[in-house]
Every structure is written in C-alpha cells, then in structure tokens.
Amino acid sequence: STPGQDTLENVHIEATAKNTGGGSDTGFGLVCDRQVTDQFYYFVVTSKGDYAIAKTAVAQEDLFLTNDDTLGTSEDIPVNAPSYRLGADCASDGTLTLYVNGKKIDSVQDTTYTKGDVGMFTWTSHDTKAEVHFDDLVVTSLKK
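^ that's the sequence the OP posted. Answer follows.
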C-alpha cells in the first residue's frame, strides 16, 4: 500500500502495526524510496522478533542488507506483542535505519535509491493466511 507520492526523500516513516490474523512468521513493515513496483527498500519485522532491512530490484532476488542476507533476531522486538510501532529512516546519504517501539534495531548504508514513494506491506508463506492492520502512518522530513 502506497500513497502515490513518487518524490519523497530524506524521510522518517512511522506506523503502528497489529498482526491480527497471521502466524508469528508473518512479516510486516515499511517501504521507502519506491521507484517502481520492484525497486525500493523495505524494513520488515515478525511477531517472533525477526527483522531485516532489504532492497528489491527488478528481476533480482531481494537482498537483505542486514544479518549477512538473512533475517536476524533482536531482543528489542517483543515476541507476540499486541502491536508494534515501526519506524524507518531513509536518509538522502543512504543511511537506512529500522526502529521498533522507539528503539533502534539496526542501520545500514546503501545509495541505490535516494527518493521515491513510501508505504506499508505484509508478507507470508503461500500456505498461511496473514492479516495485519496498520494505523497512524506519519511521514516527516529528516533534518539534513
């Protein structure tokens, strides 16, 4: 889901996510610097405490920029919480930072994309249902 603003840059994004119908493996999170359907960064967490900061590119496998290209686990992401306040910085210098409930989880550098649309997403395996509700989306400018 995206609001359709293709020129946002140097932003902080926040939204509250509630995993209301998916398993603990259901991923949900935020998107930034979306160029086209398959070109953007995303910040994903699961209800079991996993996370990644990743990059998509047309006709390529997604690349997790954190944890040696795998999902990592953080003690700062509560397991099976009723909701998660997700945050993401997408800085114009290529710094990408993930926050959960106000705590910094991880940060990486990548300058492939520097502006584009923002959004929210949910993923799950093919044989599992998912239902995640997002609320209170806020996009603000990062100070340069």
